Amino acid sequence: ETGVTQSPTHLIKTRGQQVTLRCSSQSGHNTVSWYQQALGQGPQFIFQYYREEENGRGNFPPRFSGLQFPNYSSELNVNALELDDSALYLCASSLDQGASGNTIYFGEGSWLTVV
Amino acid sequence: AQSVTQLDSQVPVFEEAPVELRCNYSSSVSVYLFWYVQYPNQGLQLLLKYLSGSTLVKGINGFEAEFNKSQTSFHLRKPSVHISDTAEYFCAVRARSKAAGNKLTFGGGTRVLVKP
Question: Do B49 and A101 touch (CB under 8 A)?
Answer without folding.
Answer: yes
